[in-house]
């Protein structure tokens, strides 16, 4: 079968009425989540995971993927109109988008964000289609040592790119591994750290953990202070960018798309990092860098293209290797598992309908988003006006029902509240949640592959350096881990990526 | 910053020690055949090492630009604690009272707790939100929310 046959399968799955509905629901909710500050795609995906239990795996993944890339679209609306990024990936869009709005050019800014997102999103799906099949074939040759070292590398890159202290990010990852290993030992079925509680035999659930860390803790942080949201009153007219705008933005769109796609493949919050780096590049290559921060449309086009392209790239390691490169993909891996599907090199052969159906649905979802975003901007602005005092009880209600619906266990509600407190304290003490969640998902896989590798080599650790791919991954991981100790490399890490953008 | 790092590193030091001890207790196995506690033990050791490095660095630093109390200043403590207490109480009463009887009072409380709103709005909002959630999750999606005293489910 060639690519066209596979695309045919994908269209036959994605165009089924139920899947179209789930795709629409996903991108709609994603946009809503992107618009509303205080709840991100990870929280929304965990909240809505229970609603997919009755659906087919295809429909479930199509909807959850739609939330992810939909949130990237929605995030730009708040950045441009309110100067509040709905998503971390839209932080840089504030810099020039909001200035454009203040100059009465909110329409072209929103239009360029939507068109740029659409173009980049579509390009990244093409990239995903082209790269995923050969990578899947290549990955079939991987053994436990390759998987173990790739996961170590993935986790290390995420830690390296963490915003704050690297030791703190490493502690979070280590703690995530510990939490992920709670429950029965996968090799000898021995209970570990279950404290004689039956509820912990299957381990700590991903949904209560994520909802606690990203949902409840966010609410606790928001209610402790008075939140004021000033919406910049402006008339939005002429959403279509002018020919001049397109001319100014074409380079930024192309560079942002390529950069976002390739950075999305790498572990470590591709969408966020790529938007920052794209902004820095655009500012550097511009003939008039002084315009940046004062309403340059390239400052909107580049980052918006980059953060949307990154979403397509992020699917590559998950769907071809079964290794999630960021927290959102870790959540998606959890969803795959709950629906009885193991993503990895064999998924394309064993579940072609799911694999290609999800990819094709992303094309359709991108078109839906374009249609949804431009005419409905007025509605999203109204949504922004919903006060937090009304929003937060509803977020908590969804968290409570969502957690209970997954397992029908009140114990999980307690776990969620507990991790809500943990997440709240983590933010106070400047610890990041992302490495914890990714390590939580990867922990059991890492342990399994480490033990298998050691059994294979009869306890000889050289198995990790005698196999080329494992050795390269390990050397890269060690290099990244020790780099903060080397003065100039440590300086480089601190400069990535926000400082680069924000030093204006 | 300094006090924050000292407190948090001491906490992680204790966690690391507990995890290592638990891993050792579970059986480490051999390198040929790692046991159930192998990974726990070594990850615990890593946590101990990392938290010690944060602790030593924090103790080494002079001054304390960011006092710990500043971290907690201007926080509406009563709101945060009351919301948490309400959530714990909800979890405790969820099974015996059931979804509807538990959720309506919780939402009324939450609507009134942070930025007080009119009673009529809070009550109406709570009832409508609860019934909508019940309709979506119980009736449409087939979740098994607890029936409790009302026997609805």
Folded structure, characterized:
The complex is a heterodimer of chains A (504) and B (153). Chain A has 504 residues and is mainly α. Chain A has one domain. Chain A has helices spanning 3-14, 17-35, 41-48, 57-82, 93-102, 106-139, 144-160, 166-181, 206-223, 243-265, 270-285, 298-321, 327-338, 347-350, 352-373, 377-384, 388-407, 410-428, 434-456, 463-466, 468-482, 487-495, 498-502, and strands at 183-184, 191-192. Chain A has a two-stranded antiparallel ribbon with strand order 1-2. In chain A, β1 and β2 form a beta hairpin. In chain A, α3 packs parallel to α13 (327-338). The model of chain A is unreliable at 498-504 (pLDDT under 50). Chain B folds into two domains: 2-71; 77-150, no CATH class. Chain B is built from six helices and no strands. Chain B has helices spanning 2-26, 38-60, 68-71, 77-97, 99-113, 119-140. Chain B is flat. The N and C termini of chain B lie far apart (51 Å). Classes of the chains: A mainly alpha (504), B mainly alpha (153). Chains A and B meet through α8, α9, α17, α18 and α19 of A and α1, α2, α4, α5 and α6 of B.
Short characterization:
The complex is a heterodimer of chains A (504) and B (153). Chain A has 23 helices and 2 strands. Chain A has helices spanning 3-14, 17-35, 41-48, 57-82, 93-102, 106-139, 144-160, 166-181, 206-223, 243-265, 270-285, 298-321, 327-338, 347-350, 352-373, 377-384, 388-407, 410-428, 434-456, 463-466, 468-482, 487-495, 498-502; strands spanning 183-184, 191-192.
Helix-strand makeup class of chain B: mainly alpha
Largest sheet of chain A: 2 strands, antiparallel
Please state the overall shape of chain B, judged from the principal axes of the Cα atoms: flat
Total number of helices of chain B: 6
* SSE sequence of chain A, one letter per element: HHHHHHHHEEHHHHHHHHHHHHHHH
Number of domains of chain B: 2
How much helix is in the residues of chain A? over 70%
CA-based gyration radius of chain B = 24 Å
Residue stretches of chain A low in confidence (pLDDT < 50, at least 5 long) are 498-504
Strand and helix order of chain B: HHHHHH
Rg of chain A is 22 Å
How are strands sequenced across the largest beta sheet of chain A? 1-2
Q: How would a crystallographer describe the biggest sheet of chain B? A: none
> Can you give the mean pLDDT of chain B?
85
């Amino acid at each position: 079968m060639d690519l066209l046959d596979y695309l045919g399968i994908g269209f036959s799955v994605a165009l089924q009425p139920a899947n179209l509905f789930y795709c629409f629901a996903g991108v709609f909710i994603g946009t809503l989540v992107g618009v509303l500050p205080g709840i991100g795609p990870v929280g929304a995906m965990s909240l809505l995971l229970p609603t997919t239990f009755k659906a087919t795996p295809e429909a479930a993944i199509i909807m959850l993927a739609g939330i992810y890339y939909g949130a990237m679209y929605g995030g730009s609306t708040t950045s441009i109109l309110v100067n509040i990024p709905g998503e971390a990936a839209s932080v840089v869009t504030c810099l020039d988008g909001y200035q454009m709005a203040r100059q009465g050019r909110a329409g072209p800014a929103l239009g360029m964000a939507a068109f740029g997102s659409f173009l980049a999103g579509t390009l990244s799906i093409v990239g995903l289609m082209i790269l995923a099949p050969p990578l899947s074939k290549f990955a079939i040759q991987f053994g436990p040592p390759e998987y173990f070292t790739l996961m170590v590398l993935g986790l290390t890159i995420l830690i390296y790119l963490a915003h704050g202290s690297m030791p703190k990010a490493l502690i979070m990852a280590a703690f995530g591994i510990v939490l992920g290993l709670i429950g029965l030992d996968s090799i000898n079925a021995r209970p570990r750290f279950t404290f004689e509680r039956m509820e912990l035999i299957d381990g700590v659930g991903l949904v209560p953990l994520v909802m606690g860390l990203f949902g409840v803790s966010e609410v606790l942080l928001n209610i402790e202070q008075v939140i004021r949201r000033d919406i910049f009153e402006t008339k939005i007219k002429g959403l279509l960018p002018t020919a001049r705008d397109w001319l100014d933005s074409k380079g930024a769109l192309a560079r942002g798309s390529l950069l976002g796609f390739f950075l999305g493949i790498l572990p470590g919050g591709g969408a966020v990092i790529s938007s920052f780096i794209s902004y820095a590049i655009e500012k550097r290559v511009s003939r008039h860098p002084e315009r940046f921060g004062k309403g340059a449309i390239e400052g909107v086009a580049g980052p918006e293209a980059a953060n949307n392209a990154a979403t397509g790239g992020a699917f590559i390691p998950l769907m071809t290797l079964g290794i999630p490169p960021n927290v959102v993909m870790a959540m998606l891996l959890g969803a795959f598992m709950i629906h009885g599907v193991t993503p990895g090199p064999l998924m394309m052969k064993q579940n072609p309908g799911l694999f290609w159906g999800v990819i094709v649905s992303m094309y359709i979802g991108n078109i839906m988003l374009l249609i949804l975003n431009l005419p409905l901007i007025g509605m999203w602005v109204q949504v922004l006006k919903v006060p937090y005092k009304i929003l937060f009880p509803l977020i908590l209600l969804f968290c409570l029902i969502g957690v209970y619906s997954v397992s029908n266990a009140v114990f999980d509600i307690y776990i969620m509240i507990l991790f809500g407190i943990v997440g709240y304290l983590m933010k106070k003490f400047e610890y990041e949640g992302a490495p914890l969640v990714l390590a939580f998902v990867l922990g059991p896989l890492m342990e399994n592959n480490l033990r298998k590798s050691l059994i294979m080599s009869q306890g000889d650790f050289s198995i990790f350096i005698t196999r080329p791919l494992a050795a390269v991954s390990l050397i890269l991981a060690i290099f990244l881990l020790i780099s903060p100790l080397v003065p100039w490399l440590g300086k480089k890490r601190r400069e990535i990526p926000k400082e680069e953008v924000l030093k204006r | 910053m300094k006090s924050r790092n000292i407190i948090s590193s001491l906490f992680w030091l204790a966690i690391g020690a507990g995890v290592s001890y638990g891993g050792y207790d579970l059986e480490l196995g051999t390198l040929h055949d790692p046991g159930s506690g192998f990974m726990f033990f070594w990850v615990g050791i890593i946590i101990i090492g990392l938290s010690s490095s944060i602790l030593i660095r924090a103790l080494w630093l002079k001054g304390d630009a960011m006092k710990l109390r500043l971290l907690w200043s201007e926080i509406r403590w009563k709101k945060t604690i009351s919301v948490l207490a309400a959530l714990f109480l909800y979890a405790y009463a969820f099974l015996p009272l059931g979804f509807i009887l538990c959720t309506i009072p919780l939402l009324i409380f939450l609507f009134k707790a942070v930025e007080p709103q009119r009673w009529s709005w809070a009550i109406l909002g709570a009832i409508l939100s609860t019934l909508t959630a019940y309709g979506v999750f119980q009736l449409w999606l087939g979740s098994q929310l607890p029936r409790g005293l009302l026997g609805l489910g």
